[in-house]
Structures are given as C-alpha cells and as structure tokens.
C-alpha cells in the first residue's frame, strides 16, 4: 500500500513537472529551447574539436552555460521545492508516528546450505570521465553493462572468443563517442538512442542526427549461433559500428 502511494506521488510530481516545463517553454521563457540547443551544440562541437584549445574552451563553456540555464529554469526550482516538501512531510509523519522496534525471539533454525555463486570482475566499469577500451591482446569476454559520463568507449571484438548464443553490449553515455569493432562472421543487432550526434553502421552514415531512435540488425541475426546485441544511449555523441 505504501509503495503504491509513493509511486502515485512520484507520478503526480513528474506530471506536474512536465506541465510546468511546457508552460515555461510556451509562455514564460520562449528563448530557453534555443539557449539549450546552442549550449548542447557548443558541447558537441567542442567535443569534436578536442584536444585543440578552441575545442576545450567551447566544450567547457557549453557545460557551464548549460548548468546555469538548468539552474535558472522554473521547472528545476519546482522539482527542488517538491523534494523539500516531500522530506518535510516525511519528517512530520515520522514525528507523529514514531517507529516502535520490538525484539523478536525466534527458535534456532537449521543452517541451510547457501547456494554457490561465482563473481566475475568486468573489464569495464562505470566512470564519470575518461576513455575506456578493450585490450589490444586476447582477452576473455564478459557481457558489458555500463554507464559513463564524459568520454569515449571503444570495444574491439576481434581479440576475444564470443560464447554461443546472444552477447549483450549495453552502454549509456552522457557525452562522448562509442565505437564497436565486429568480426565479419558475427551477426549483430543495434538499438541506439541519441539526442544529437552521428551514426555509422557498416559504412552507412547519418552525419547529422537529432533526437532519434534507431534499430537495425543483420539479416541472419535471428538464426545465428553467435550474435551480438548492441544497446546504446547517448544524449550527445557519435556511434560507429564497423567490421574488422
């Protein structure tokens, strides 16, 4: 019951936030959309021009201006107020209905044998800044599921042996490029979401992509014994998938 109430509360907050955002874009600050697009464009172009000084300057100016624009938004202030009111209500309820802890005495039970699990250390991990790349030598494959902040990710599948069945590469990136190098005998499926960037899959290019979701797969993907499913999400950045 409590979880259902909390879920409804969050849904109402998100709905009201969407209404406030629409009103802000429509009536109160019509130039905000243009400002946000310019700042995202500065970040994207600056990322392209790196490591030149002009690229770094444009990139960080875009970051700073974007943060300032977000902090000045009515919608942002609305969500801050909603969070403050939520914690205030929780505090008042906790004062009215303090939790009572009662010790529970239980009869000793039999020790059941715990199930054995094996923990593998992935060669990729979540990180806020920097580039990640698979080794330039033979390595043991492990499915990838990561979130990154600002930086590039390069995955070369030619140095590993993929297991039979479906291999999954799941990357959520904030700003940066993703490159996946696939051997010729491997079938793939790509599900990509991007706000601003470019897409190149096996030579087919879309140099300017804005707010799109793309899903493609090779013809023999469903019947292949070895196949790779690539799921990526990038607000700002490029995706490249090519054969090696």
Summarize it:
With 244 residues, the protein is an alpha/beta fold. It has helices at 2-28, 32-49, 53-71, 74-96; strands at residues 127-129, 132-133, 144-150, 153-156, 165-175, 178-182, 187-201, 204-217, 226-243.
Q: What would you note in describing this structure?
A:
By secondary structure, this protein is α/β, with parallel strands linked by helices. The chain folds into 2 domains: 2-96, no CATH class; 127-243, no CATH class. The chain is 36% helix and 32% strand. The chain has helices at 2-28, 32-49, 53-71, 74-96, and strands at residues 127-129, 132-133, 144-150, 153-156, 165-175, 178-182, 187-201, 204-217, 226-243. Strands 1, 2, 3, 4, 5, 6, 7, 8 and 9 form a 9-stranded mixed sheet that branches. Helix 2 packs antiparallel against helix 3 (53-71). It is globular, with a radius of gyration of 24 Å. The termini are far apart. The model has no long low-confidence stretch (mean pLDDT 80).
Stretches where pLDDT is under 50 for at least 5 consecutive residues are: none
Shape: globular
What is the end-to-end distance?
54 Å
Count of all domains: 2
The helical percent reads: 25-40%
β-strand percent reads: 25-35%
Question: How is the biggest beta sheet arranged?
Answer: 9 strands, mixed
Helix count from the secondary structure assignment: 4
Structure classification: alpha/beta
Tell me the total number of β-strands: 9
Our Rg estimate from Cα atoms comes to 24 Å
Structural topology:
Blueprint (H helix, E strand, L loop, with lengths): L1 H27 L3 H18 L3 H19 L2 H23 L30 E3 L2 E2 L10 E7 L2 E4 L8 E11 L2 E5 L4 E15 L2 E14 L8 E18 L1
Parallel strand pairs: 1-3, 2-4, 3-5, 4-6, 5-9, 6-9, 7-9
Antiparallel strand pairs: 7-8
Helix pairs in contact: 1-4, 2-3
